[in-house]
Amino acid sequence: MNIQIKKSIKPIKYDEAIRFMENRLLKIDSNKSNELIWILEHRDIYTAGTSSQENEIIDKSINLIKTNRGGKITYHGKGQLICYFVIDLKKRKKDIRKFISTIEKTIIDTLKFYNIDTFSDKKNIGIWYKDKNITKKVAAIGVKVSKWIAYHGFSLNIDNDLKKYDAIIPCGITDKGITNLKNINNQNYNGLENKLIENFILNLEN
After folding, report:
1. Which pLDDT score, from 0 to 100, does residue 1 have?
2. What burial letters (b/e) apply to 172-185, b meaning 16+ CB within 10 Å?
3. Is 171 marked active-site?
């Protein structure tokens, strides 16, 4: 399995990242390039997926980009790990639900390595953490499939500013919260992206 691993040190503009992935998708479809897993960070940006609603924007002055991924409105910024990918499902099972489960398992397995227990929810896509009696989202997932090639990705909150979510109804969910890894357990998360990539590749092969 030839998957290129790309890690960007400097923040990447959202629209540039999408153009890069869409271009890679076309190359993969014509067998001219390898699949991709890409770790990066975005500057402050809010993105609205295909099922987002206007009433989910609380602060109308925010910098919002409409995108073709699934899901609703979320925030990206400093302290949040973004894992984008361009993965050919024709080389595996043509099963989008199974692929989403692979992503969920990857994040859950990775956080388990740091002694953090999280879970997925069939009704509300993403990865969740139970903080006393409140369920809080720690990772958001948004995927688009074209030509049976999956792209976009997921975001994992590490030590980002959670106040940024006050401007929106995150993922359209009003009865749950948002958290990050530093709030859950203020430990060293160096090397997390490597563990994430390792688990993602392992789970893609199974």
Report:
1. 60
2. bbeeeebbbbebbe
3. yes
